[in-house]
């Protein structure tokens, strides 16, 4: 690109999570170190020795969704559409105001409309493939996660992208929205990620031996793995020009992102590749490692992830990196939503001036010698935050967010 | 962005020539489900590492192999694949294992791997060592053409030097969840090799009539997506097609050929005939191949390039549209160079 690309800022955020619905409640949850864990109710857990998770409770789609018949939305689409509404509301915009402008909608997911797909599988197992309900097949389409937002908001002139890139998918979506605005393809972008707890995902992680029986304890010597969770995070991105022209409140600037692939192993992360991804993100953002004040880690709470991630961080940041926190200690693993919620948490950390803690922390793992801000949030003046997202399949995506300062 | 090569394994056969010749001659396929004939993963890829692979993964790995060269920098080579719902069959298998046994967690790890929606792209990257951007896009029947827009952004922002883009669909029990009697289910994989076209023109609107890039089979001039908010798919195709032509300053009478996905009754072909009445309307993919779902777009591109290679002068414009019947329409304009690509 020859011309200086548009700067891109966050002007609205929508959150559906187990620790709060809406950015304000989510911020309170992060500051308080909330962590809600209970037996999973989304599917029959008979036969599993344990099945705890962080489900979203108290979510009523009808409270947010006005245009779309709610029964045509699966749980994941309902989360995404509600979060998109919240992002627009926070930005002080409506669908009507965006209708005549070119837009971009990018939503990341690991499992798509997972509960519907599981239901189709269950019907097939029980009664054969001819017994499946065509309406459920229709509702289960993964592309609906992004398209449903457009249908609900009446946005025709948009490119609906659904990134099925597992646990880093939210960062993929943010990155694509950033590029779409930078290149002038779109004036605004609704970007983020979503997933809903489902049997297949739970059983799979359980089988792989990385499902924690009780809590998620990232960077802890006694960690036992991830905890199933769900939710959605959607951000409204717009060009700085557009945000300033309408006098919008700016919650953060998206400084840049990096993405690459391990091409190494389907399940195990790879240190060198993660290091390279961090370097790409920093280069894209024009930021030096010593300018980064906080790293929101992928931090799944598995030995393999946490140790690999810390080593990769140190290979870029040296032996004294900035604080490295794992939101998954509070949120559980929200899969495709996790890095989107991480980006929203990063913007909250910047504007509210605190570092969200790594909760459930008891015994530091000597292999993870970092400041994980154990158990209690701390006040901090943050300018730049790095938000990590890694995934099965080696899909790494890292986003850098910064405090937006009005030019003097 | 330039398409420098394509490759396809289709119900017409495992070679590019099989597809190209059949696309041009209009060779009909038998009724009923349409597998890729003679595709045996072990024969193409060897025994090592193929036992636990899904058929769709094997198709993708084998197709990608034909598009990579020794000079490619693996760290700068990306892979962008479309999908419908990941491997619905593997998801079904995980559920089956988890429901039929008293130990609901006794699932084959290889099935867990294949059931991840990004599994084909991840495994293909591992097989070929591709460390550039690796993405899986779920855009329904329009995913292939939308993926072109994504790849263009990745290339223009310098995130990769080369991207393989396409999709693979396999014939499985779970795929027949989608009951659509308008055409048989078909399996296959089509992929394109994409590279940047060089310096971007200063104004996006001016790109349409710039001289062709010096290499490649075709240049992707623009991609336009549209979400159908009023249920009128035909009007949406019309609008998307007109927009993409306007954006590239292309007069409709300069369009040599148009091809649709064929996923609507006749709304799409009527719209194409209305937009560019003088263009040759190539048979839509559902008619020539069957339902290939997420691979529709890549097969449409391969079909256009096959037709262009078979006849006529260079430097012609082609219009492509794909429709997701639930309400997404995407249109793209290609400048086809028309050099012989299949021998």
TrEMBL record, chain A:
It comes from the Bacteria. Residues 5-403 form the Ketosynthase family 3 (KS3) domain. InterPro entries: Beta-ketoacyl_synthase, Ketoacyl_synth_C, Ketoacyl_synth_N, PKS_Beta-ketoAc_synthase_dom, Thiolase-like. One of its GO terms (biological process) is fatty acid biosynthetic process. The keyword Transferase applies. Keywords: Transferase. Gene3D superfamilies: 3.40.47.10. One of its GO terms (molecular function) is 3-oxoacyl-[acyl-carrier-protein] synthase activity. Belongs to the thiolase-like superfamily. Beta-ketoacyl-ACP synthases family. This is Beta-ketoacyl-[acyl-carrier-protein] synthase family protein.
UniProtKB/TrEMBL annotation, chain B:
Residues 12-24 have a biased composition (Polar residues). One of its GO terms (molecular function) is acyltransferase activity, transferring groups other than amino-acyl groups. SUPFAM superfamilies: Thiolase-like. Residues 49-178 form the Beta-ketoacyl synthase-like N-terminal domain. Transmembrane segments: none annotated. It comes from the Bacteria. Residues 7-37 are annotated as: Disordered. InterPro entries: Ketoacyl_synth_N (IPR014030), Thiolase-like (IPR016039). This is 3-oxoacyl-ACP synthase. It comes from Streptomyces piniterrae.
